[in-house]
Amino acid sequence: MAARKKVDHVCRKCHRVLDADKEACIICGDSSLSTDWQGYLIIIDPKRSEIAEKMNIDLPGRYALKVR
Amino acid sequence: MTEVDNHYYAIKTTSKQERAVADSIFRTIERRLLDIKVHSVIVPEELKGYVIVESPESHSRIQELVESIPSARSVVPGETSLEEVQHYLVPKPVVSGIEEG
Ligand SMILES: [Zn+2]
To answer: What is the pLDDT of residues B59-94, one digit of tens each?
Structure first.
């Protein structure tokens, strides 16, 4: 795919998906970011989501399932 | 966590629009454009052309949601289970800072 828009970065530590212009994670502050990630997860209501519980996520937002 | 009755529905999407559909569901729920509850949206890499929503709502309510989301086509009849969805999750470790290997 040649004409792909800028790839979002993912924090290697907490798996949060960040906008392409971010240089560090907005949640944990870690600057180890990756563009090589797969699977996508959006947590809307962490208190009621069993998926959030399984993934140890307590903040709403966008996450990657797999990060390299 | 309190006892919740969550359902898991698979939504068929236009090819390669899985993430766009997930984002658009997120926006719709967050801005309360519809009175429908969705707790999470899962887009497994392995599952091309589908997203999974975790929701306490009925199948017909999710169908209503799908009708307002561009590139979302239909709700797959029936439900999927948490067990099935879990196969697509790769849990990150609770303790961070430990090197693998
Ligand atoms: Zn982070």
So the answer is: 999 999 999 999 999 999 999 999 999 999 975 555
B90 and A65 in contact by Cβ < 8 A?
A: yes
Domain ranges of chain B: 7-86
Can you give the CATH number for the domain in which A24 is found?
2.20.28.90
pTM greater than 0.80 (yes/no): yes
Of B26, B45, B82, the CB nearest to A44: B26
Please name the residues in contact with A63: beta carbons below 8 A apart, sequence gap of 6 or more.
A10, A14, A15, A16, A17, A40, A41, A42, A43, A55, A57
Domain at B7-86, CATH class: alpha beta
- Whether B31 shows a pLDDT value over 70: the answer reads yes
